[in-house]
Specification:
Number of helices: 5
Radius of gyration: 29 Å
Shape: globular
Helix content: under 10%
Length: 810
């Protein structure tokens, strides 16, 4: 044994000896209950922190009787911090010089939650009324990941490779940040999901069947990151790199005291991507004869350079008033090259080979976005009566210049060359007010109003080379504006009897939509002006036992309005197809019925079940037809798409979330879903049973090395005359902390077997396709984070990332 090893063993022995003869330790015991009804509160976080720097020292969680016991407490002065979901955080100074056995703490209801990291057996998944909560902070397997990884583990949520979020396959999901609507547009939301680290998230709340309080038709996902800290500051420096390749350095500075916290976050990124698409299409004439057959293979290489700067400021003006403001911007540059090899046989009006090699180069893509907003809340008293007002603004712009070329397989055909130019601009804003008033006998009234506006400008120009000069293509070059306005009001009434709660709600929504499209030569102007009004009733029943078993049943009726572009008859032409709108579209209505069960078993983990039924009338889908458009394609038959109201559709399914945590160093989790989807369109009907699962395992080896792996699979899913391809993958990673968590290192291997794939096959009567898409999903990523300062602020360290950004949908 060498000298170094002897020294290490000696030091460890001395530490152990010192621990065995340390000074007397004490115990702090007590109970936590509700301030109003004095009901015992289970699974409440109770922690002791040093008064000098709020470093966490010891902690516990209350049991089924609401009691807690903190052991091995060194005599001294501490801050006692008590926090629970749905209650205001309680902080008080406490002197521990003797054993304390009868400490009673009463929590007042509210939304402020301060979190102490307490290592004990707590459920990853819980229910509270209409919310299914995934306690991200307690899941060690995703601490080195991003918000995308955290969302993948939330019940029913999926995030694809591009950052698109769906809930039970529905994309119309409303994202909230810290109990406030984010109003993010699509690009801002993707940036948020990609940049926000999972260890900055406290929990993810999923509402699959929202009450009338919410405006969405597809569910609500609330990402909770807020924390209240006494004075501290923290500087974090980090870098993420991957073999695809890509690299992203970042820095974050947080300063906070009991009144104010401030966060500045800056990052930059360089990434490259490779993607390959292949498939085929068959176009049939109305008599069933083949009109066109295509077989294609596309390879895309892209490079992206971007950055992000975000500022967050939270000010506790007084014990009753709070102000939050946010501001940010994100520029990005991109370049891409696409090469398409198209095998193309045209049969009408006569057979001919029209195959070609298509190249699309966009070397100068540029986009940028900016946002800002503020939120103010005032509490009138300690009963929970409060009012909040918020507003936000957002702008997003994207543009680029590129070239296209068609080199035909038939050398007798002349090649075609184009120049392209595009620009999109989308400013928007929103204003909302919410009032909550607890009434007598356990009733609570909530009412509010929201106003939103959004504008959109889309410009594209195609110039084709002819006789040595570029000439504008009259029917491909277009400009359009879209404007949306909405005014919504809602009221909910909730009644509680112990663990039982009933919540009734009603919401009214008025939408105004306007669009105007024309060709750049001034022809073809088409205008849409319309408005829609609908009511959203809801009822939620829930019951929670004293052993933390939860039951709920809920119903709501939602409606969805067509977008202004879906109503416009303006034709958007492409090379061999076009798409148009349908002015006869109607509002669609959805009836949602759900029943849920959640059970936390001490020493085992968590079991959650959710059964649901969804019935739609006039659901809006996209249908593909065959026809002619002589103004652009001459006599050639082409396919075109148009939105339609599907007669009816239905979805019935069941979800299961099972977590097994036998000890503090092992975590096994399974999320599984089984559902049937069917629809009736004109005289055609179809249905299919689909399923998906996601399995995760996390373990800690040797007390310092964390290992985790996850596998997922989604079977093909049915759509209107379409069926998606199965999606699957397997990831593995490891992480560790050094120097008292000042340095963290992680290594991930994404999609180890390269199985990730997207695609869809369609079987419309006159247009049938196959297609699949793969990208460079298999890569190794490495991340480093260095922390300087007080790590209690880490969950704020990247809250500057796009909180409150975005635009309402038009």
């Amino acid at each position: 044994m060498n000298t170094t090893k002897r020294l290490i063993i000696t030091l460890l022995a001395l530490v152990a000896l010192g621990s065995s003869v340390q000074a007397q330790t004490l115990k702090v015991k007590g109970s936590v209950r509700d301030h109003v009804n004095e009901e015992e509160l289970m699974y409440v976080n109770v922690g002791l922190m040093r008064t000098t720097d709020t470093v966490f020292m010891r902690g516990a969680v209350t049991d089924e009787k609401g009691e807690f016991k903190i052991e091995d407490v060194t005599p001294g002065n501490y801050l006692l911090q008590v926090s629970c979901v749905g209650y205001q955080t309680h902080i008080e100074k406490i002197d521990v010089h003797n054993n304390i056995s009868d400490k009673i703490i009463e929590l007042r209801r509210g939304t402020v939650l301060t979190t102490v990291e307490i290592k004990t057996d707590r459920p990853l998944y819980t229910m509270l009324g209409e919310k299914n909560m995934y306690n991200t902070k307690d899941d060690p397997s995703i601490q080195t990941g991003t918000a995308s990884d955290a969302l993948q583990n939330a019940p029913g949520v999926e995030v694809d490779a591009e950052g698109n979020i769906t809930l039970r396959g529905v994309s119309s999901v409303e994202i909230w940040i810290n109990d406030r609507p984010s109003h993010m547009n699509e690009e801002a939301l993707k940036q948020y999901i990609k940049q926000l680290p999972a260890n900055a998230i406290e929990r993810v709340e999923v509402i699959t069947n929202p009450s009338a309080r919410y405006s969405t038709t597809g569910g609500v996902i609330n990402i909770v990151t807020t924390q209240k800290i006494t004075r501290n500051e923290l500087l974090c420096l980090g870098v993420r790199a991957r073999t695809s390749p890509g690299i992203s350095p970042w820095a974050s500075y947080v300063w906070a005291n009991e009144k104010v916290d401030f966060n500045l976050y800056v990052n930059a990124g360089y990434t490259t991507h490779r993607m390959e698409n292949n498939g085929s299409s068959l176009l049939l004439a109305t008599n069933g004869d083949t009109s066109r057959y295509q077989e294609f293979n596309t390879k895309i290489n892209s490079r992206n350079i971007g950055g992000y700067t975000g500022l967050n400021l939270n000010w506790n003006i007084s014990e009753k008033s709070h102000l939050a403001t946010w501001l940010g911007a994100y520029p990005y540059w991109s370049s891409s090259t696409s090469t398409l090899d198209m095998q193309y046989l045209e049969y009408f009006p006569f057979k001919q080979n029209m195959g070609y090699i298509y190249t699309d180069k966009n070397p100068n893509g540029f986009g940028w976005g900016g946002y800002g907003g503020a939120w103010f809340e005032h509490r009138f008293d300690t009963t929970g009566r409060k009012v909040s007002v918020s507003f936000s603004g957002n702008i997003w712009n994207e543009g680029g210049i590129g070239t296209e070329s068609f080199v035909y397989h038939d050398t007798t055909r002349s090649s075609l060359y184009r120049r392209t130019k595009m620009n999109n601009n989308n400013p928007s804003g929103s204003l909302s007010v919410n009032y909550t008033h607890p009434l007598k006998n356990g009733f609570e009234l909530e009412a509010g109003a929201e106003a939103e506006m959004g504008n959109g400008l889309e410009y594209q120009c195609f110039d084709t080379l002819a006789a040595g000069n570029y000439v504008q293509e009259q029917l491909r070059s277009t400009e359009g504006t879209e404007r949306g306005r909405s005014l919504n009001g809602y009221v909910t009434l909730q009644k509680r009897w112990g663990g039982f709660a009933v919540k009734l709600g009603l919401r009214g929504e008025e939408d105004w939509k306007h669009s105007e499209w024309h060709y750049l030569n001034g022809t073809g102007s088409t205008t849409v002006d319309t408005n829609f009004f609908g009511l959203v009733p809801s009822i939620h029943l829930s019951y929670q036992t004293k052993t933390f078993t939860s039951y709920s049943i809920s119903y709501s009726r939602r409606h969805s309005t067509p977008g202004s572009s879906q109503l416009s008859t303006f034709n958007h032409y492409e090379d061999y197809s076009y798409f148009t709108g349908n002015p006869n579209l109607l509002m669609s209505y959805t009836h949602n019925l759900e029943a849920a069960f959640n059970k936390y078993i001490m020493g085992f983990g968590n079991i959650g079940l959710n059964a649901y039924f969804r019935a739609n009338t006039n659901e809006i889908g996209t249908m593909t037809y065959v026809g002619t458009a002589p103004e652009y394609f001459g006599s050639t038959l082409v396919n075109y798409t148009r939105p339609e109201n599907i007669g009816s559709s239905h979805t019935e399914g069941i979800e299961a979330n099972i977590t097994y945590r036998p000890n503090a160093f092992l975590n096994l989790r399974l999320n599984a879903s089984l559902f049937n989807y069917g629809y009736n369109y004109q005289d055609f009907s179809d249905s299919k049973l689909s399923y998906s699962f996601r399995a995760n395992i996390w373990t800690k080896v040797g007390g310092w090395l964390e290992l985790f792996a996850n596998a997922h699979y989604s079977s093909p899913r049915l759509g209107l005359y379409s069926l998606s391809v199965a999606n699957k993958g397997f990831d593995f990673g490891m992480s560790s902390d050094f120097f008292d968590r000042k340095l963290s290192v992680y290594l991930n291997v994404n999609d180890i077997f390269g199985m990730t794939e997207w695609g869809e096959n369609t079987t419309a009567p006159n247009y049938q396709t196959t297609g699949s898409q793969r990208y460079d999903s298999r890569f190794v990523s490495l991340g480093l984070t260095w922390r300087i300062g007080k790590m209690e602020l880490e969950s704020k360290a990247r809250q500057g990332a796009t909180e409150g950004a975005g635009a309402p949908q038009m």
